Amino acid sequence: MDNVIKLIKDPSIDTVSFDVFDTLLDRPVLKPTDLFYLVEKRVQEHLGDINFPFCEMRTWAEQQARDRLKTDFVHYEDVNIDEIYSVFREVAGVGVEEIIAIKKIELDIELKYLRARQNIKPLFDLAVAYGKRVIIISDVYLPSELLINALRRNGYEGIERYYVSSEIRLSKGSGSLFSHVLADLNIKPNQMLHIGDNLHADVKKPAQLGVRSYHIPKTVDLFFSGKRVNHRIWVGKIERLEPSMRIMLGFILNKHFATEPRAGWNNNSISNGNPYILGFYAGGPLIFTLVKWILREAKSQQLDVIGFVARDGYLPLKALKILEKFEDGVPRTNYIRISRAACIPFQFQTRADAFAAISKLHFNKEQTVIEILRRRYFLEVDDALKAHFEQHDIDVTKPVNDRDKFIKAIIDLGDSILAGFNKQRELGTQYYSGLFKPTEKVGIFDVGYSGRAQKVLAKATGKKVFGMYFASFHEILGLESLGLQYRNFFAAARNRWISSIGFSTAMIEMLLSEINSGTTAGFEEKSEIKPVVLPSEFSPKDARTIEVIHTGALDFCREVCAMFGQDTKYLEVSSASACHVFSEFTMRPSNEDALIFKDVAFGSHATGEDHMCLIGSSAQASYWREGYSSVERALQKSKPAIVVKDQQKNKTQPLGVKKEIHLNFGQKSLVRVYGVFAKRHMKEADVTRMRYDTVKFFARAQHPANVTIRNILNAIGPQIPIHSWKE
Fold it and tell me: What domain of life (predicted)?
């Protein structure tokens, strides 16, 4: 921007002209015709015809109007909106009054969504402050009256003249509009500076006339040319996106990718390593679309109340409170304290169940017997219970060393092992029943995955609770046999061990869940029955990181509602499109993306695992393995190569980062031919390894024949070093 600032300040510049669309003003779209979707929705509502194809007819009418202009008025270089709607009326088959109403809807939509491009407005203000004559030159079919109104509404004051192609009938694209401006103002070309986003019409054409020009690409072009964050996740998908998602993506790009951050952009990262951008860009569309889906399902099922399961329902409930004023018939909502630990007493009611509570449910083997009895069986260890376990040679102050011995001790307790379950089930039943009126039809939202909370609430309340899940696993498949219905937002129930679900469960729970309080450990009765809510397990640092992500996602919902208002109801997006960025982030993160969660840890009261890391010391210790793999790859690349000695030339290779070796055609051909004969002294697996990992194979070669081939390869192409390569 320094160059254009110097040009504006240049005393020889008398006049500064600006383009309007995507320069002074932008719209929340990827391309201008995306806005026709909102026009279409309003037109369909106005006409009472949900199938009225406004978008297709409007696009066709404009093209026909331009084609007719070339024939009927050969000297005209641009059309106006009246000419477009004259053709539109022919194909639409509606009356004059309806055409006037439809045209007004389009103009109203244009005016509503034209907003100041915040990083360009200071340039405009600078030109005014330096006393330059500021003018507008725009190629557009819209009337100048709309441009004047839109610019003034967005704080652009001090514009002396407007030159609009639809009225003057000359265009920037041909250069004739610039010639007209120079003649009208009676100035020399080098006294004028033009600023715009179109390289041809705003830069090359005026430059040919001697007008000084400056190119400021629109934000969308900067993003998709790789000058912002990783745009490759959208390759081949943009044209296939539904209009609402294109609008939301355009809104996001204009909001957060217009200006250069102090540290610059990383085009390998999805979030630029910024948790707020992650929340706004990846989490925002997901939460927004998820809440609209929940409300749609609630309306379809005629629900009276939606219970959001703590803690996974925290962020969706917050977002619903933002969106509800733009939705009709929103049910009553409730934040239900239910957790894996709170569900256990309802799942296990017999002595056989008490056995299953250990044999079926995972638990941390490092926790003491006292902790297992307290967390899993809701039992406090007294002297009698301690003596019982001592008879089975079990020290309750130590971890379980012999699982079978521990199970035998549990069985020998008899019905007394069920005392904790029975008490908690009684308290839970009273608590959950009190949340709903007898006649209310109830639905719940939970992240997933087995329908446990839905079954417990149905059992406790005696209601046919309807379940809404982000996703579910195969364990949920028996739910309908119990007379319970459910729907999934992201994907149908699947076996996660057989087929990838397309996102990290740990990461989606991190996005949705509350961080300021811990899990529900059970119930207690004092003056009234209340859930026992533990303190948050997140460290202050981790909580701040996640809170910033939550803020970004909720800000997206607020700002979309603020901009689109009543048009928010038209923004319907598929789950696949809404979740695309977050799915790519969790499944294929860059190192910069993964490092946001490098030290984040959480816990599970029910299993006794109080410190579970998203990215741990190993893949097995990481609950976000894709994030771990990304960080590990970056670490490996940064490590220096091992110093080795070339035994043939007796030279030591210098330290440095290992560089990838690309074999030439001759080397590859030799390897293919050698592979045919190598089967005589090599195993089939080694031959395959040689073909597909050639450099590493020959770098570690020991067999005389393989060493000979390596020497030949080194003689005809890039050198393969001798390595004691560690896997």
Answer: Bacteria
